[in-house]
Design goal:
Elements: H1 70-83, H2 85-108, E1 124-125, H3 126-137, H4 140-171, H5 181-195, H6 197-231, H7 233-253, E2 256-257, E3 260-261, E4 263-264, H8 266-293, E5 313-319, H9 324-328, H10 333-349, E6 353-360, H11 368-377, H12 384-391, H13 398-404, E7 409-414, H14 423-427, E8 431-434, H15 452-464, E9 472-478, H16 504-509, H17 520-545, E10 550-556, H18 562-565, E11 572-579, H19 582-586, E12 594-595, E13 605-607, H20 611-618
Parallel strand pairs: 1-4, 5-9, 5-10, 6-13, 7-8, 7-9
Antiparallel strand pairs: 2-3, 6-11, 6-12, 10-11
Organism: Streptomyces similanensis
Protein name: CDP-alcohol phosphatidyltransferase
Keywords: Membrane, Transmembrane, Transmembrane helix
Length: about 625
């Protein structure tokens, strides 16, 4: 192949000079090397050579843009420090103190809202003393790495504590690092239904950024504190010994500020708590799987299940977030109690009687499906792992017990279900009407897909009011009292319900969720109104469509969130059985329940998981335990 020569330069172009010292350090165009050491020419590489162009004169070249070199930044910093020594020292001291404050704040951060008070942050954490001892002893490079890793771990624990604050506020318990991740997606869906998809997306992005920021800030803060300790190890050691003596003195004498011990072991206690919770979760998974296999009525033949209810139309109804606070809290109770008393009187006029008591729910503030499955199965289903275990098995539910007899058809009315619901098979439901099968064409009321009045009317039209060869056992979930309790539907004439379009004006004129969701007083008021609406809709439906053979079991699934029910509210919910046939209520006379829809304060309180067996036994079922 012929040797390729470099085209001659135009006469007015100077050969390219070496870069001047003041030029950027980036890549520059330079003449290609000649001779044996030169790189292969394009043609030698199998590529046809392109046209060659002369370089522009040096005066016309534009420097390659690049970020300032770190050394240049350090030189500028040093020049500023030399020019302003006092300001530099003050700024450095302030930054170090801020870093120390951040580390102490992270070490002392509570995981419950009620623990946020000044005394909680006026403590001396032993973890800070231990960490300082380690950092003082390490050489510079090891100290930096250890401080960065320890700070990032502290940031992760801080994020976990903040998550605990929200979980305790909404669900009355801490975040389970094994089981609760899928609830974060449920929270995003709730925000999307309540405040819109854009707000939900921004909240999700904001949460991720918050966690990343916490990890970065605590790591940087710990590194800075470590560097400060390492600059003068002798002085840092003396200060550490003094603080250790102070901590031991406060611990021995139990010195307290505002009822809180000054000598703190908060972070160690939190790590121990989460470690024990993790161990408990893993143990519980194995133990509950065995418990779920044992069933007192698992092998009972259908002919021996609920013989005393043959021929009755059974309705098991949950009212969302209907808790004890609605009946006994001084803010909500007056309106709710008036509604319950008025409804009791109206039902009595229609020939119905009611008996009521209390059940302690397996969940609080949310997780309605845990309450539903606990009540229907007779098992204590208080976490997502237990829920998956029980719903994937064959433990007998109340609705399945009625279906198993062969004497009842079963149906579910689930206006809150907006996706696949495989649990219907476990519940023993022959047919399910979800949010898309009830014919609703009106507006959503925040999270609730439709008003309870419409859902009940659709239930009557599609299932309860139709002629059946067998009585019907129904599982109905009412959602209008679901948070955020805004806007709340209003009762309309039953004959005007149609496809639900009548509610458009009511929804448009209602209170906006954003006006209620952050206001505790408004939340409590609107929650009480929503319970009044749900109770009114249900009892009016029963007056309108109930027969001599109708038996209604109605209860709440859980208490509302702590912002409404209070930080130390019980987990109790009201439960009532309503019927015209006196024999139905005579069967539960020994239970000691209260007459009417409003249970007395001293009425019996059972765990929700105890109801199934008591109910089956009261109505003549014969136990035949299944083998575990």
């Amino acid at each position: 192949m012929p040797h390729q020569t470099t085209p001659p330069r135009p006469p007015d172009t100077e050969p390219a000079a070496s870069p001047e010292p003041d030029e950027p350090d980036g890549p520059t165009d330079s003449p290609e090397p000649d001779g044996p050491a030169a790189s292969p020419e394009p043609e030698e590489q199998g590529v046809s050579p392109g046209p060659r162009f002369p370089r522009a004169p040096k005066a016309l070249r534009v420097p390659h843009p690049r970020a300032p070199h770190p050394r240049a930044l350090r030189r500028a910093k040093h020049r500023w420090q030399a020019a302003h020594p006092r300001a530099a020292r003050a700024f450095s001291l302030a930054l170090t103190l801020a870093a120390l404050a951040l580390v102490l704040l992270a070490l002392l951060l509570p995981n419950k809202r009620e623990q946020f008070h000044p005394a909680a942050f006026l403590r001396l954490p032993v973890e800070a003393l231990l960490g300082a001892a380690v950092l003082i002893a390490l050489p510079r490079r090891a100290r930096t790495v250890t401080a960065a890793l320890g700070g990032a771990a502290l940031g992760a624990l801080t994020a976990l504590n903040l998550t605990d604050v929200e979980f305790n506020q909404y669900l009355g318990r801490s975040f389970d690092v094994v089981l609760d991740w899928q609830l974060l997606d449920d929270a995003r869906s709730y925000l999307a239904d309540t405040l819109g998809g854009a707000v939900a997306s921004l909240a999700a992005v904001g949460a991720v950024l918050l966690v990343l920021t916490l990890l970065a800030l605590t790591a940087l803060a710990t590194v800075r504190v470590g560097n400060a300790l390492g600059r003068d190890r002798s002085r840092a050691t003396r200060a550490l010994l003094l603080l250790c003596a102070l901590w031991m003195t406060c611990s021995s004498l139990n010195v307290q500020v505002g009822g809180v011990p000054v000598a703190s072991e908060h972070t160690v206690a939190m790590l121990r708590y989460h470690e024990q919770a993790l161990r408990s979760t893993l143990r519980d998974e194995r133990a509950f799987a065995k418990t779920a296999q044992a069933d007192a009525f698992g092998a009972t033949p259908g002919s021996q299940l609920v013989p005393d209810l043959r021929g009755k139309d059974m309705i098991f109804t949950f009212i969302e977030s209907y808790g004890r606070s609605a009946i006994e809290d001084p803010v909500m109770a007056p309106g709710v109690d008036r509604t319950l008393d008025a409804s009791t009187a109206a039902l009595k006029k229609a020939g119905f009687r009611a008996e009521s008591g209390w059940l302690t729910s397996a969940t609080y503030g949310g997780g309605s499906w845990l309450g539903h499955s606990t009540f229907m199965s007779g098992l204590w289903v208080d976490n997502q792992n237990r829920y998956r275990t029980v719903t994937s098995g064959d433990h007998l539910t109340l609705t399945e017990a009625f279906r198993k007899t062969g004497a009842w058809d079963t149906v579910g009315v689930m206006p809150g279900v907006q996706k696949g619901w495989p649990e219907a098979k476990w519940y023993g439901l022959d047919k399910v009407y979800d949010a898309f099968r009830l014919g609703y064409r009106g507006p959503k009321f925040s999270w609730s897909t439709m008003p309870d009045q419409y859902a009940l009317e659709a239930f009557q039209r599609l299932a309860h009011g139709k002629k059946h060869d067998k009585p019907l056992t129904s599982f109905v979930i009412l959602t209008s009292s679901h948070q955020p309790w805004a806007p709340i539907p209003e009762m309309v004439d039953w004959d005007r319900l149609g496809d639900g379009s009548v509610f458009r004006g009511i929804e448009a004129a209602g209170t906006r969720p954003q006006d209620v969701i952050t206001d505790q007083a408004r939340s409590r008021e609107e929650y009480g109104k929503s319970v009044q609406y749900s109770v009114t809709a249900l009892t009016q439906w029963l007056q309108r469509y109930g027969t001599d053979d109708t038996v209604l079991v109605v209860l709440g699934d859980h208490q509302p969130i702590a912002r409404v029910s209070g930080d130390h509210a019980s987990r109790d919910v009201p439960v009532s059985i309503v019927a015209k046939d006196p024999k139905v209520l005579d069967r539960i006379a020994s239970w000691g329940w209260t007459d009417g829809l409003r249970p007395a304060h001293g009425a019996p309180v059972w765990r929700m998981s105890a109801f199934r067996d008591r109910f089956l036994t009261a109505y003549g079922s014969t136990p035949h335990p299944s083998k575990d």
